[in-house]
Amino acid sequence: MSGPLIALTGATGFIGRHLLTALSARGFRVRVLLRRPVAVPDGASSAVVGDLARPINMAAALSGVDAVVHSAGLAHAMSGAPEDDFRSSNTEATKRLADAAERAKVRRFVFLSSIRAQTGPSAPSPVRETDHPAPTDAYGRSKLAAEQALAETGLDWVALRPVLVYGAGVKGNMAALMRLARSPYPLPLASLSGRRSLVSVESLSAAVATVLQVPGPLARPLIVADPDPLSLPQMIAALRSGLGRRAGMLPVPVPLIGLACRMTGREEVFDRLSGSLVATAEGLAALGWQPSQASQDGLAALAADNAG
């Protein structure tokens, strides 16, 4: 195999595992950068063990590398983590890796950021890359700070800002939604009309491959989102259709749902359920990227694959 050599962090995580498979299938050679000695993941052409908190062997890790894909970091689902932890894992570690990549003369640095670097959990109008970034929590601020650190290097960089990602092995909010869809009971959610953008992990992997192959400089953030935002009832209906079931939704006034969430300490959950977060991937589309499938089809397939 003689394709471009990619250094990939986070290869044992949800997104990283899919990236390793997808990039290898597209002809890239992938060198995984691991924090501790473990079995080399399938699809990797080589592996280097090291710690971004103490990057003592980054020169060896990045020797001969054409591009870095940095997907490691502290996830938003770990919302109880202190701000310093997000800053250390998501900002400072990214800057250290980028500095090492610049010294190694790496051609491009692809950073897996988040839509939360640009906005809070909801937005009143569609979010675009040209909007001024306004993160609202420690996770989003740490991702935006990492992007800003990349902009200060001499690297050609790109920060991908995916919306809620779904796919095999997903955790966090989407895993909770899948558990809800698998429940045997009708759900009192039919009145929730807020729409949210989603993206499959396969489409996100295709976005990474797209920006790796762009010949000219990028040096900017790009949103990654399917073009068909869905309401929560539509998401549940798609998942349940994959399970061979009817949607099973009951109309309950939204204020009553909000009251129930507040009384049970789930006010943040209600904000996520009732609000909209629609994002447009105009920059990626201009580069030739297309999502692998419609969100409703992807959710149905995901549920069908996990029916057991």
From TrEMBL:
Matching Gene3D superfamilies: NAD(P)-binding Rossmann-like Domain (3.40.50.720)
InterPro entries: Epimerase_deHydtase (IPR001509), NAD(P)-bd_dom_sf (IPR036291), NAD(P)-dependent_oxidoreduct (IPR051783)
GO MF terms held by the record: aldehyde dehydrogenase (NAD+) activity
Annotated signal sequence range: none
Domain (NAD-dependent epimerase/dehydratase) ranges: 6-214
GO CC terms: cytoplasm
Region (Disordered): 118-139
Record protein name field: Epimerase
Biological source species: Methylobacterium haplocladii
